[in-house]
Amino acid sequence: MFEEKQEEPIEPMEPVLSQTEQTGGIYECPHDEVFGEITEGGPNYRNVGWLGTAVLMMKTQIGLGVLSIPAAFDVLGIVPGILCLVAIGTITTWSNYMVGVFKLRHREVYGVDDVGHMICGLPGRLVLGGSFILWWVFSAGSGMLGISIGLNAVSSHGACTSVFVAVAAIAALSLGSIQTLGRISWVAWIGLVSILTAVLIVAVGVGVEDRPADAPIDKVWVSDYKVIGNPSFASAMAAVCTIVFAYAGTPAFFSIVSEMREPRYYTRALIICQSIVSAFYLSIGIVVYYYCGSYVSSPALGSAGPLVKKVSYGFALPGLLASTTIFIHFPAKYIFIRILQGSRHLSANTMTHWLSWFGLTSATALIAFIIASAIPVFNDLVSLIGALMGTMMAFQPMGCMWLYDNWSAGENGKTVKWNLMVAWSAFVILAGTFLMIGGTYGSIVNIISSYSGGSGVFSCADNSD
């Protein structure tokens, strides 16, 4: 299975300068292993700088995930919660690093399904390709649900929640239809600043407010945070997979590195991304849960008082919209490239090009809208996505990627480093499988419980309470 070895050393992907660039114009790469010939009038798919790459990486992660981390700490307890967050952050950082290494060795790779095809043939491509699409479509659904919660909070439930979900779908579709990541990176910049500001407002608010928004007002409030929780197996697994969701931007990193001007700077962008993301997750998770205890909300923006809730959601809405925009863009772009790859329609402004692109973004937004309306409890949807598809995208394939490229090196002598990396890769694969099975079970149990408690499909009820 892993007998093939890449013999050639890794070399930087030097960009080929076009006549336009040589004369000081816009960067273009005449030919790319994924996108083929890039024409003068068509979209320039290779135009993302390393700083834009770091921002896109951060925006695929900081957003919906961070809003659920304090609630996950409430289930697990603050100490196990921190340990789980650090462990998952470490594994996914290595997984993200492997994406860059694998791309430089196999420059024709565009998505995780290409990895599946190289390792397991057509079944691998179908399983990982299908999981990739479902992962981002479900993530887009959770983004629409988050936007509807924000609109309900800001407007004091000014309209039916299903209407707000539809508004979120239309807005995200409009921005998600921008064709290249180079042109969409400004959305990520605005969204990142927006969501960071909103969460910091909440962190300050819960420290200043007398009590959390949902805490009882007829007695003295003392935070009831737990150092170590005592959850059921189902609840614990769902909480852990909520943290997986917060870190599982990994499948997007294949698409991002494919559109970089210079992929050799990928690791630089990754270090910036993971350092900021991990520090932010830890600080926000600890501070918000410490002050709110069992009365922490999910999304966390509703944890402080009514005024802080409105203000924080007001700042967060652009960030939630930016996340949903990216979540719609990725699966549509993936299918678009798979359909048109090898033809002139991929990089030329033909009728087929535009009909295919807008048809795919519209279909993605529609399915995400249905998902958001069918699973109307934010925390349940996030944990289900993290369990069922997040681990499949961020754990198992990366362990297999290292084994694929390095397994045959053991035939020349099993060094200590080789043995340790084989053990690590096997651990990542097994841990991902365990989390996928256990987390999916726990999430389904919680969703069933939510329906029993009165949550409904296409509900008009206020979901910001």
Automatic annotation (TrEMBL):
Bilayer-spanning residue ranges: 48-69, 75-97, 126-149, 155-175, 187-208, 233-257, 269-291, 311-332, 353-375, 381-404, 416-437
Membrane topology type: Multi-pass membrane protein
This protein's UniProt keywords: Membrane, Transmembrane, Transmembrane helix
InterPro entries: AA_transpt_TM (IPR013057)
GO CC terms: membrane
Domain of life: Eukaryota
GO MF annotation, one: L-amino acid transmembrane transporter activity
All residue ranges annotated as the Amino acid transporter transmembrane domain in the record: 48-444
Compartments (UniProt record): Membrane
Stated family: Belongs to the amino acid/polyamine transporter 2 family.
Protein name listed in UniProt: Amino acid transporter transmembrane
Annotated source species: Penicillium angulare
